[in-house]
């Protein structure tokens, strides 16, 4: 029996041995997992992987540790590979991979995993939602964020403080402040430091500075302590509205809270004082810092540039250089911006460029873009182009800087060519609102209506929100192309209109012969509380001078000085003198000339000369012409007009003397040139031009035209022809003026019903003006002729200028 019992004991001892072995295995796995975790956390991922591969036993912790290690270090392909091999996936595995994709901005992968997780009925948690919401906030993915918000409501996570904090941040980053406010308001007693900071930052970033300041006050009142993330946002809000007193109080809170040594908080304090134009305090804080921190110095440099203290910014930059501070890619763009907008010598700008090359920052896109912009704004387009061409990667800012630079420097054709390259295969970059506005301005200056319309269409298709600068450029472009209906349509569609908008319309009406509409627009502008400026009054007085509205012009000229305190410039005096001169009141014109508070420039004397020619006032015309010859020695206009005045008065010898004087000084008259846009091409013509491939048809059309309008009552005005020809020669010469060739081509090429648009580089002569009226009536066409002075809209035998141009 004893032996039997012994055997029984032996039999029962077997399970006990298995138990001990199992515990030993678990203990070994636990210690190996700990070592694996230590290697992963210390960044020794290769060693961790070697250990992982050697492990015969792996549990959830083992797999998750390795997936987290790969995801955290950005090695997502390896993390994904392990994830799919993992036989024991749980929420942590999914979170690790989703979080890794979110941190790296892989929105499609992250969201795909998130939806797949739900499809497989895996339970996500607050950490999953936090990662995805943070990505939606950073990448401004509003629609995806709203979908995830729906998931939080369905799964009751909308009561979790961390998740709601993520939703508030997401909505604030996506500029949906009202939704963020609603969520914030529903939390009441559950708000923590992150909640308040998210809401406050949302207000600050979206331009609600006063709400941000009030939010900070409420946060303090409820006893929640701000931190290093809260203070910069409220300081930014203070700076945005120059609330220096509040900023000083926040500064006090920072000192009491122990955050005054935090670099980011210090930078925000310095920036706040600079924005509030308290440079003395900002400099003092910078000097008191224990170490020279480049972030804080950069902050002051940036704010000095933004607030217009260019010299102060350059002085800070020099001191940074003298102190051997590490000047970085954030310092340099601000400094280059100083050179772009100040009169600092170009040598200093070139030396900074040399420093950029030496330090290797020339390869940084941010710095290269600033260089292109600086050179373009200084008018040295060759240097701008060299920097641009050396750039390996060009973005929309690079192209915009170059295109805008060409537009500002009058190289309009080059600006349009670059814009086409930007959108084509060479650039492959979609234009933004800034470059669109610039290209529309270039189109306006070249009067390229079809091109401008294409840019307008592309802008609409792009889906960009309404832009005041683009809309203003559209109004200007359409008015400068003589399309008042389109300009009015854009103007009426604008939700917000500023002074530039109204001025563009006022000047546009004036230039297109709509003087009454121009004055009416001005009245509505004043009724809307918008104050006119220097340019507005040029448009108003131009409208009056080209419509003979003497009383109205006198009233505006007086209100300009007495009501709006705007000192009249040469352009305003030129309009008034032109008005008096056109009406034949030379006494008033002379009186105003003598009363001018500024030195009369060429514009004023040209107005006097033109009026003298019109009314045959040779003595006044001689004085104006002689003065113009001194002011603009290479300008042929005073010579030509004075010669014509002598010829018209029968003083041929004196006319010949002026022509000889002109020849002796090597001054040549600019040849008249007219061009018309048709079928995507610009066709140019000069007087008696025979270069066009359809010239036979064009001359035949001219002959037909002249015959028909003569039958309708047209008589050639030979006073505008060359004086050394007989009557027949003069009439023939007039028939082949450039604008008549252009309109003949327009009749052949422009479809019936469409306006014929002609541009001329000089003022249209009286004979061509008369002929255009008859042509518009005989052929039932709307002819729009823009000369160097204004637009002429010919319809049914009359002109919009009412023969007063």
From TrEMBL:
PANTHER family from the UniProt entry: PENTATRICOPEPTIDE REPEAT-CONTAINING PROTEIN, TETRATRICOPEPTIDE REPEAT-LIKE SUPERFAMILY PROTEIN
Listed name of the protein: DYW domain-containing protein
Family: Belongs to the PPR family. PCMP-H subfamily.
Keyword Glycoprotein appears in the UniProt entry: no
PPR repeats: 59-89, 90-124, 192-226, 293-327, 364-398, 498-532
Keywords: Repeat
Gene Ontology biological process terms, A to Z: RNA modification
All copies of domain DYW, residue ranges: 713-805
Pfam families: DYW_deaminase (PF14432), E_motif (PF20431), PPR (PF01535), PPR_2 (PF13041)
A GO molecular-function annotation: RNA binding
InterPro entries for this protein: DYW_dom (IPR032867), E_motif (IPR046848), PPR_At4g14850-like_plant (IPR046960), PPR_rpt (IPR002885), TPR-like_helical_dom_sf (IPR011990)
